[in-house]
Write a structure and sequence with these properties.
Blueprint: E1 30-31, E2 41-47, H1 65-73, E3 75-76, E4 80-81, H2 87-96, H3 120-126, E5 130-136, E6 171-175, E7 199-201, E8 204-205, H4 215-233, E9 237-242, H5 254-258, H6 267-289, E10 295-301, H7 326-329, E11 333-337, H8 342-351, E12 356-357, H9 361-369, E13 371-372, E14 392-397, E15 400-405, E16 408-412, E17 420-423, H10 439-462
Parallel strand pairs: 2-9, 2-10, 4-12, 5-6, 5-9
Antiparallel strand pairs: 1-13, 3-11, 7-8, 10-11, 14-15, 15-16, 16-17
Helix pairs in contact: 4-6
Length: 468
């Protein structure tokens, strides 16, 4: 498997950044005609529960040479925020550019991607792209007919049927939710079915006997074939590749596990080996994308690592998955591309010094694809323009609230009854509450958050009941 060092962009590369995202109901897409950006192929890779510290550049005990090269040769975004500290809401933000609370997607297995939300796949397909989804969907059920995964096939969940093929994807290889990271169709330690299927279309489940080995490899092999087909058809590609790893249940591939100087039965060994599999597949995907030049690959995780005592790392950030402290929502992120455009790279590198997030991917992708929309109530901003505004990101998860403006952040654990203030620039571990010394600043941020939240709740009230 060639390293990304050999796939890295040429000196001064760039114009590519990011991929994904969608639009709001009724929005129209119009090619801009400024440049032939519609030919740029776009791939979004997202891992599941990978912590901000879980890359070799931050932890030398990890073996992630492909990811390390991607971060080094592309552009890392060190303060990249998932829109939520759990899976489904973040995924909704990626495909719509809107906070998941606007759609009633508040947690994992909650709600579904509403039909009125035009997602990135629909936008790019209308602009001439061939679109594919590969991996963990988690934005609704994939079948009404048979019992599947967490919600599929249950009469009470019928309203949440919302598969990728009904949201603009031409090709699908998807599960509703989690599977084991090795032999994904088998319950670990048994020969029993895990209970989650891969689906390629309505009523089209993949034969489980063909799905053996590393789950990340099974996903990337199909995504790579999709990219090869796009090249043969001379069509720009848009592929969403959402890996299950390193989400539990973590089952390590024998090869990487045997090469580690760790107890093979330990959770740490399984985690490190699982990340090694992820790393190899990121390299394989970049290799498959290379012939589609011009092309861009964006990489991130969906939230922080699982469990207080789990093997994943936040590299010292406070909190983990399910928290709105930095460790739950700041995730590893980088952009890698095949083109050369020093001006664009300069803009991207400057913007990467400030916070960014999954909600930004929608407006960024539209800019890169040369597509305009009159969509309202977006929560993100394009990362390929310099508008002089400090980045602002709002968060709402169960009773937790948070708001980031530049280097400052407010946090509430009681639905906004009380707040703490943190200087994230100087105190990324959120160890010192500066509310008393910065009361005016805190008041300004609290009012900004409340204004945003009022708009979100109004959107939510207007959403169809079946979507909430």
């Amino acid at each position: 498997m060639p390293s990304l060092d050999r796939l890295a962009p040429q000196p001064g590369s760039p114009w590519v950044l990011l991929l994904l995202a969608g639009l709001v109901a009724g929005a129209a897409f119009v090619p801009r005609g400024v440049r032939d950006s519609s030919r740029t192929s776009i791939v979004l890779v997202m891992t599941d529960d990978q912590g901000w510290g879980d890359v070799g550049l931050r932890d030398p005990t990890l073996r992630t040479p492909e990811l390390d090269a991607l971060f080094r040769e592309g552009v890392e975004i060190p303060r990249f925020y998932a829109a939520a500290p759990v899976c489904s809401p973040t995924r909704a933000s990626v495909l719509t550019g809107r906070h998941p609370a606007r759609m009633g997607i508040d947690g994992a297995n909650d709600g579904h991607l509403p039909p009125g939300e035009i997602c990135l796949a629909e936008a790019l397909r209308d602009a001439g792209y061939r679109t594919g989804f590969f991996g963990k969907w988690h934005l609704g059920t994939l079948t009404r007919d048979v019992r599947d995964s967490n919600r599929g096939g249950r009469p009470a969940q019928a309203a949440h049927y919302a598969p990728p093929w009904e949201h603009g994807f031409d090709v699908t290889f998807a599960t509703e939710a989690k599977v084991p990271t090795f032999d994904p169709m088998v319950r670990p330690g048994t020969e029993e079915p895990f209970g989650t299927r891969y689906w390629t279309g309505p009523g089209e489940a993949v034969d489980a006997s063909t799905l053996e080995g590393d789950d990340s490899r099974l996903i990337v092999e199909r995504a790579s074939r999709f990219l090869e087909e796009c090249e043969r058809l001379d069509r720009p590609a848009f592929a969403v590749v959402w890996l299950h790893a390193p989400h539990e249940p973590i089952v390590a591939s024998p090869g990487p596990l045997q090469r580690l100087d760790l107890d093979p039965d330990s959770a740490r060994a399984r985690y490190v080996a699982c990340l090694a599999d992820v790393d190899a597949q990121v390299g394989a995907l970049a290799e498959a994308l290379r012939p589609l030049d011009p092309a861009v690959l964006f990489f991130c995780s969906d939230n922080g690592p699982e469990h207080r005592d789990g093997p994943g790392s936040t590299a010292g950030l406070r909190g983990r998955k399910r928290d709105l402290f930095e460790g739950g929502i700041r995730v590893p992120a980088a952009v890698w591309w095949t083109m050369s455009d020093p001006a664009f790279e300069g803009v991207l590198r400057r913007r990467a010094r400030a916070p960014a997030g999954t909600v930004d991917l929608f407006p960024t992708a539209l800019d890169l694809a040369g597509v305009e929309t009159a969509a309202a109530n977006l929560d993100g901003r394009s990362l390929v323009t310099e508008d002089g505004l400090a980045a602002r990101y709002a968060f709402r998860s169960k009773r937790q609230r948070a708001y980031v403006h530049g280097d400052w952040k407010i946090h509430s654990a009681d639905a906004g009854e009380s707040w703490s203030l943190y200087d994230i620039g100087r105190d990324p571990g959120e160890g010192v509450d500066r509310r008393e010394e910065g009361s005016d600043r805190a008041s300004t941020l609290i009012e900004a958050f409340r204004a945003w939240e009022r708009g979100v709740l109004a959107d939510r009230a207007d959403a169809p009941a079946a979507s909430r």
